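ok posting inputs for the iron/sulfur cluster job
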Amino acid sequence: MKKDLKVDYNIEKEEQKKISATAVGNSQLGDIVEPLLAWYDTHARVLPWREHPAPYRVWVSEIMLQQTRVEAVKPYFERFMTALPTIRDLAEAPEDVILKLWEGLGYYNRARNLKKAAGVIMSDYGGHVPETYEELLKLPGIGSYTAGAISSIAFGYPVPAVDGNVLRVLSRVLESHEDILKQSVKKHFEELLRETMPKERTSAFTQGMIEIGAIVCVPNGKPKCEECPLESLCLAKRHGLLDSIPYKAPKKPRKIEEKTVLLICSSKKAAIRKRPDQGLLASLYEFPNTDHYLTADEVREYLEKEMAALGCRVYPSQSNFIYFDTGKDPAWIQEQLMEKGIRIGAFEMSRVSVGTMEECKLYIKALKEILEAAE
Ligand code: SF4
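and the output
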């Protein structure tokens, strides 16, 4: 139920802050619908998943777009749809095939959950993506944003989809000083949008909100307010608060783990091992590594013990292994290397190629770049 509350823009700033997004939002938000839809009609980007917004395509695209740029997703999406054009294909494909199609996109649990959810859709929903927000939420890998996006874009239900883009736009339009990383704030914005969304054109509304956040009220850099259809309604713009909104509480300091990563090379091969089935980068391959920094002697001891367990002997010499510490999670390093196109046998054992001196040099050069970029 919308509240009929008028906002006096002349009151002091501190007083304005006390007016929560609830009060302002309910009175203001209905006004965004018309300009938003008109703008989307003329400014929406042409994207492969928008051309045929079938539920399966919308679902896969939304999962790929999580934490990933649109331009990076495009070729992956096309390739995925060509290889696995139906939900049945996805459900029946071996996990290795799906991971290979996903290779380089990162956050591999997304791909595993897609396969799991496809299995559930085949067994429980007759091979059809469920339509409602509530049913979609039951599928592996689908949270409130993705459920809202699929339901509103593919099926026309007036349910909101609030991602980082939408949080940014709404917090500015409403001049909300709340921490947008809080779940309670996201929930509140979802409620506001649920009251605001038109019953028709739900797909354009959802995509329009996301699109403004992606290309006008941009995540990094200055918002392009002069191009924004919501400019006349935007309170943060009106009050010169674009630097402080959206507000994010400072992050806790990063936890640094001490590790020693072993690059154990023979003339043609390097040792890798599979990570546990659960947790970070589950089931992927990595260089052997240990907790804490080890000295050269400790590394030798470690290797002797590990190799003895495999029935092998180690001939300790400085030249048959390289050890170093990076202060970073080795799994993260591995993912960064893969994104740089350095394949270290994560999925194709037959292509393990780190091992020649040239390849080791390439590896170490890339590693340096990654660590410098992470500073
Ligand atoms: S007017 Fe500017 S700050 Fe406000 S939503 Fe539009 S782009 Fe963002």
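notes: Residues 1-26, 315-324, 344-357 have pLDDT under 50 and may be disordered. The pocket of iron/sulfur cluster is lined by residues 169, 172-173, 216-217, 223-225, 228, 230-231, 234, 236-237, 242 (CB under 6 Å).
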